[in-house]
Amino acid sequence: MTIQHPEFVQEQQYVEHAYDLLDRGLAEAEQNIVNFEALHRSTAHAMNRALAILQNSRGSGQLVFGRMDRNDEKLYIGRRRVYDEERNLVVVGWHAPAAAAFYDATPQEPGDLTLKRVFIEQDRRLQRIVDEVVRATAHSIATSEGDATISDALLQELDRSRDGAMREVVATIQAEQFRVIRHQSDGIVVVQGGPGTGKTVVGLHRAAWLAFNKPEIRRRGMLVVAPSSALLTYFSGVLPSLDVSDIDQMDLDSLYGGEARVTATESAETARVKGSAAMSVLLERALRQRIGWDEDELVLPLGADRIRIQGDEIRQIVDDVQERDLPHNEARDVLRQALSALASKRHSEDQRLQNRPVRANEATIRRLSAFNNALDRLWPTFAPEEFVRSLYSTQSWLTVAADGVLTADERARLFRSALDGEAWTRADLFCLDEVSYLLNGDVMTYGHIVLDEAQDLSPMEARALARRCPSGSFTVLGDLAQATGVWVRDSWDELTQHLSVTETSVNTLTIGYRVPAPALDLAARQLPLVSSDLTPPLSIRPGRGEPHIWHTSGEDLLDDALVLAERYREEGLTSALIVPDDLYDRVLSAAADQEIKLGDGRDGDFSLETTVVPASLCKGLEFDVVILVEPALVAAQSVQGARQLYVAMTRCTQQLDIIHSEPLPPGFGEVSAIDDVIEIDAGSPTLSELIGLLNEDDLALVEDLVRRLVVPAQEREDVAVIDEEPVR
Ligand SMILES: Nc1ncnc2c1ncn2[C@@H]1O[C@H](COP(=O)(O)OP(=O)(O)OP(=O)(O)O)[C@@H](O)[C@H]1O
Known about the structure:
Layout: H1 8-39, H2 41-59, E1 64-70, E2 73-78, E3 82-83, E4 89-93, H3 100-104, E5 115-122, E6 125-134, H4 135-143, H5 152-159, H6 175-181, E7 188-193, H7 199-213, H8 215-220, E8 222-226, H9 229-235, H10 238-241, E9 248-251, H11 268-275, H12 278-289, E10 297-302, E11 305-310, H13 311-323, H14 328-353, H15 362-367, H16 369-378, H17 384-392, H18 395-402, H19 408-414, H20 426-440, E12 448-451, H21 459-467, E13 474-478, H22 493-499, E14 504-509, E15 511-512, H23 517-524, H24 527-530, E16 538-539, E17 548-551, H25 557-570, E18 575-579, H26 584-593, E19 599-600, E20 610-614, E21 623-629, H27 631-636, H28 641-648, E22 652-660, E23 679-681, H29 687-693, H30 696-715
Parallel strand pairs: 2-4, 7-13, 7-14, 8-9, 8-12, 12-13, 15-16, 17-22, 17-23, 18-20, 18-21, 19-20, 21-22
Antiparallel strand pairs: 1-2, 1-5, 3-4, 5-6, 10-11
The structure holds adenosine-5'-triphosphate.
């Protein structure tokens, strides 16, 4: 029998009252907009947008999720603020300063709260009420031994099956996370933490918190950047559900606003050269080399007359313009004015000396084709694509620009013949962005930028972001251990120095909310292969138990993986087949052959129960179950194989399965010898088939053995429970 909380009925009424007020407020707003729209069509658009945000905030999550009492004060906390008709505050928004004590209070450190109450609600009906801090018991908890208690509300939220989209978690933000969310720094706030410690959650909630509490930042605009469009799709619903739809969200490749798009990949070594800060020096030098005048004089024909300007005079103008440090195209305009003014002055002086009428002013001179041809030689104009393409394909130009900046080998990696055409890589895009800025100097800027999975950013990418955030106010989310590209670093300074010179504070999250402890233990075996001082987070969840490791033949690999996914689907769990990039298309076609529908993770389609995700794109994502296919190939596809495996194995909230035909890569070496992970041969007969083969004596022996084993096995929590049926 469950005992109802003594204040259940009153609290249910309070929650209903809050919903009722929200509904009425919305209905009124809708009516007002209809009335208003007829009169003022032009501003109706903005009003409708505001209404959409309001409606959105009704749509998801709990309206009221907590209450806190201190002395005689009682405050209800919710996803958004709610007033009654008399403008009394019925619910305080989670981001209001008044709500901070709710997040800070833990049973160990309740602050001045006498009660912290958490509501678990579904469809406006309270399911449970959990009193986390009650003054009378707080002291005894605080003085007792033991670890921080994990709240029921949090565990319930974490055990929820994933549906392919990240959700806001305002109801269950933890004290360690909230401290970072409302960090007061104006500079760079780095949030470092192992997989599933809530870095993305913290970054998105911090963006919303800043938007509500720092109007000056919100006015200057805010941006959230994800490394891939798949990850962006996964979390892009969180900010609108927190009532902030005016924060831009973008994937890294969309940052460059020019023509070029990523259509190619390249070797890690080449990407490293193009992504290095040295490249910015090289590009600037290359541009400067295209500027200048090495002829003795410039002669401008004007009918029968000639205007003559000495080479030294031109070089002086160029020097003066260069000193002003303007963007290339703006500087060209200044130069054009200065040169035409000099030419006009020279023409007037000459004519006056010869008692002849002045025949041309500055504007006339600027229209002369000889003047424009000279200007193009002296200070040419470029489109970024044209500039970089021509630089990459001109050995002599590259050689001079790279002198002292790149080695000959590095320089050779940049060269490509003009015939190679327009295949741009991601690293190229950021060279183009740099050139575009050198040429035009204009770029959309923001008051604050949140960067997810920042550990992989190249210096050139960081520079592009720095240009977009002149205040240097960043939230940088990442895990140095999960760097899988060419930019592996020992410290965050190596990256943040390219973002801004503002102060950097590094904040570490230690508790893992996603990955079950047994899966994390297995994944963490990759860490010593990466570096001796990396530690995984502390998982607070058991999940469904030990990882399953399946062995099968190369021929059956993909079909067997699909069978596993089908099994989980039948159990109502979402799963991801994380596959080596090279097998991606084969998995899709194997599924199509069997008429199995798979979400295409490359395109950010997470709407189906089973999604296939190339290993290179799985960072930041999560699913109930992960079926990692052929880890040896996943490790081999990346310059950072062990790190790539660590990332892939830490995407599940419930269960990790690994299926392989090739020998397992390093780090798994001892797996089959350890009795907490059982290796199953997919081709072997089922346990019941084996039992059927036994004679009576053997059967009795087995029964006796099983009887003796069962008791200790049930007592031990970490025993792997593996389906007795093999994959097929
Ligand atoms: N306080 C919380 N309450 C409820 N759920 C949480 C909380 N913190 C984190 N989570 C959940 O834990 C999971 C992992 O969070 P998140 O993706 O932010 O972690 P991460 O550190 O960014 O992981 P990764 O390193 O893999 O990118 C998500 O499902 C998130 O909703």
